[in-house]
Write a structure and sequence with these properties.
Layout lengths: L10 E5 L7 H12 L4 E6 L5 H9 L4 H22 L2 H20 L5 H24 L5 E4 L18 H11 L1 H6 L1 E5 L2 E3 L5 E3 L5 H11 L4 E6 L20 E3 H9 L10 H6 L3 E6 L7 E5 L8 E16 L9 H11 L7 E3 L3 E7 L1 H5 L7 H10 L1 E15 L6 H11 L6 E4 L5 E7 L3 H14 L2
Helix pairs in contact: 2-3, 2-5, 3-4, 3-5, 4-5, 6-8, 11-13, 14-15
The protein binds adenosine-5'-diphosphate, aspartic acid (ASP) and magnesium ion.
The site of magnesium ion (MG) has 3 residues, from loops.
Catalytic activity: L-aspartate + ATP = 4-phospho-L-aspartate + ADP
Keywords: Amino-acid biosynthesis, ATP-binding, Kinase, Nucleotide-binding, Transferase
GO molecular function, one term: ATP binding
Length: about 450
């Protein structure tokens, strides 16, 4: 099996939730993998809908609601087991379903966060086992527990991977297997040094694929999803959105950070550091092509894409003590860091700081970012105002900061709606601003029409 040797071209393929949603979707992906001998490792997400149900279980609902979520998960997994018709696999899936039901009803033993990660990991454990068996109908395949190699810290719910250890563990436990068979493993899931299950944050399977590719020195990561590449904006939002054939790492990273859900924002970090090419395409329509993410691209359009992130919260901290004072910014950020809050945008004036927090992910996980404790600590320092229901729109391109046309046209286009905050200048690749969530879709469409459809 010469193509299988890691020294030749070798890629890691990742399939997202809709790509492994049911038996038919898994069959399509298995055929795709079988037709691409360079793919030696497959990373899968949980089947569509399963992680949401597991998150809901983790919010400790009453028994009736818990049974509903368990029934949803059961239905999805059973729907794949039946046509697969392998009694040993069905038995294993049922065993895990029983364990999951017990874990959900007994509740946390140590910390809630650790218990939630145990629950969440079941989604990818089911899908990887089932996908490996479907793939095995086409090429020799096995299923591998990624917790043996995906070493993270103990920050449950959003664990930080340790790339050096992942590389060492991949070489030790995984590399040799890839020479024998195609290996299928779980995205999103990891384990800390004590072997406790962790997860990388919602949408983290893309990141897993890139981390494993780096750990195994693969040449390419293929992200197979439900759209034929990275588009000029979310195709669900804008009918005029079109696929981008080639995009630079820097632009793609900004686009992912500012909301293009198609790629987890951290995915490109291991890819860039290890010179691994990244491709994004549709598992439903592989012949439609997709997007190549490259170190640089020949074409460097002024505006490449528009991204949108909802559920942004703006916190404004005012203090007259800030006038001519030093260290105020540092104090505010120290409080935020102590509470593990990551800030996206910042603007300052002589006596105030405005900053944004992303509440989208945290709301879905059932915990509030801006707790009473944070507000009380900030409140001791200064007067604090909180505004919710805002959306962050980012215009992504090249040398955006030094082309007056970008800011001029952007604000002319947004003009009928109020811009609540603007950030420009820190990156050559983006200009971002906040608007009310209620008008966000129309603003994205207008900006897209102005820069991309008209280009
Ligand atoms: P997967 O389950 O395969 O990881 P996701 O749902 O996480 O898929 O990401 C794919 C979705 O990302 C698309 O269906 C699309 O609606 C959304 N999306 C947002 N912005 C973009 C963009 N610029 N290009 C392509 N897709 C985008
Ligand atoms: N299953 C996880 C989620 O839904 C991870 C992923 O799909 O990338 O967030
Ligand atoms: Mg995703």
């Amino acid at each position: 099996m010469s193509q299988s040797h890691p020294n030749s071209v070798f890629s890691v393929a990742k399939f997202g939730g809709t790509s492994v949603a049911d038996y038919a979707a898994m069959q399509r992906c298995a055929e795709l993998v079988a037709s691409r001998p360079q793919v030696r490792l497959v990373v899968v997400s949980a089947s569509a809908g399963v992680t949401n149900a597991l998150v809901a279980l983790g919010n400790q609902p009453d028994a009736a609601e818990r049974d509903q979520h368990l029934a949803t998960i059961h239905r999805i997994q059973q729907g794949i087991c039946e046509p697969l018709a392998e009694p040993a696999v069905t038995e294993q899936v049922h065993l895990w379903l029983d364990q999951l039901a017990t874990l959900a009803s007994v509740g946390p033993s140590a910390t809630v966060a650790a218990w939630k990660d145990e629950l969440l990991a079941y989604g990818e454990r089911f899908s990887s086992l089932l996908f490996s068996r479907i793939l095995n109908q086409h090429v020799s395949a096995s299923c591998f527990d990624v917790r043996q190699v995906m070493r993270t810290d103990g920050h449950h719910g959003k664990a930080m991977p340790n790339q050096a250890e992942i590389r060492q563990l991949c070489q030790q436990h995984l590399a040799a297997q890839l020479e024998q068979q195609v290996v299928v493993t779980q995205g999103f899931v990891g384990a800390d040094a004590d072997g406790h299950t962790t997860t990388l944050g919602r949408g983290g399977s893309d990141y897993s694929a890139a981390l494993l590719a780096a750990g195994l020195q693969a040449n390419e990561v293929e992200i197979w999803t439900d759209v034929a590449g990275i588009y000029t904006t979310d195709p669900r939002l804008c009918p005029g959105a079109r696929a981008i054939a080639e995009i630079s790492f820097a632009e793609a990273a900004e686009l992912a950070t500012f909301g293009a859900k198609v790629l987890h924002p951290a995915t490109l970090i291991p890819a860039v550091a290890n010179n691994i090419a990244v491709f994004v395409g549709s598992s439903r329509e592989p012949v439609a092509g997709g997007t190549r993410i490259l170190p640089t691209t020949q074409q460097r359009p002024m505006v490449r894409a528009v991204a949108l992130r909802r559920q942004q919260t703006l916190v404004t901290v005012h203090s007259m003590n800030m006038l001519h004072a030093t260290g105020f910014l540092a104090e505010v950020f120290a409080i935020l860091a102590r509470h593990n809050l990551s800030v996206d945008l910042v603007t300052t004036s002589e006596v105030s700081i405005a900053l944004t927090l992303d509440e989208a992910g945290s709301a879905a996980n059932g915990h509030e970012l801006l707790t009473e404790a944070v507000l009380a600590e900030l409140g001791q320092l200064a007067r604090v105002e909180v505004e919710r229901d805002l959306a962050l729109i980012a215009v992504i391109g090249n040398d955006v900061h030094s082309r007056p046309a970008v800011s001029e046209l952007t604000f002319a286009t947004v003009a009928p709606d109020n811009v609540r905050m603007i950030c420009q200048g820190a990156s050559p690749h983006n200009l971002c601003f906040l608007v009310n969530e209620a008008v966000a879709n129309q603003v994205v469409q207008r900006v897209h029409d102005r820069f991309i459809d008209a280009a």
